[in-house]
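Encode chain A's predicted structure.
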Amino acid sequence: MSDVTAAPKADAALVLEGTVEYFAEFDFSRLDDSLESLLKAGVHFGHLKSRRHPRMEPYIFTTRKNINILNLEKTKECLERASEFLAATAKAGKPILFVGVKKQTHDAVKSLAKRLSMPYVIDRWLGGTLTNYAQIRGRAKYLVESEALFEAGEFKKYTKLEQQKKQEELEKLEHKVGGLRVMQELPGAIVIADAKEAGLVIKEATRLGVPLVAIVDTNADPSVIDYPVPGNDDALSSLRLLLGLLGRAVERGSSAKVATTAEKKA
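Encoded structure for chain A:
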């Protein structure tokens, strides 16, 4: 891999600028998964050497100015493996759940999932989202049905105060389970934007045997992830590129499923 110069981690307050609905009308064909592209996006920048997880050692290229530098050739290999799995999962028609816990992951995760018509969870993971899925699904279904009633004007017969309370209830529910409204069954895979912050997600998925794909920075444990993708999970440029490449694989699989279904009907 080419020589690199270490740089400080991106400031979360800075990387949020201009992120609204980034993937809404995204053209995945624009993406470049070359080593040069990964380097330009800052995928290689890890955390301080003192924060390194020992199991990330095989993925680290060198250390510059006390910052761990990831081996982008390893990252590319892991990306290809994860992409093949996600494409196959999407082609099989299984939902793929996207998760982002850290603030700088929220828009990228949400807009990508919506672009792919896949479920998502951002910010706080509700305990039992997977292990108590029936209850979570019930709340999401209630949200959808209540929204339909609102749009149909069914709540106009109530007082303004009652309508306001109902609206507030649905807004809270939207924040908690709104991203799960399209998930009709347990996911066939989960894509995590920030493995270090997703301990509860990983615990529930592992318990139920749901395969995990995750961006794993140098301070996280890759051994708990089925398809780890070593990369910078702080800089928005890195998050966008890595999530976009994984999303491209999902889109490819979904398109293949549509084509296969059409052939069977023909």
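Confidence is low (pLDDT under 50) at residues 10-19.
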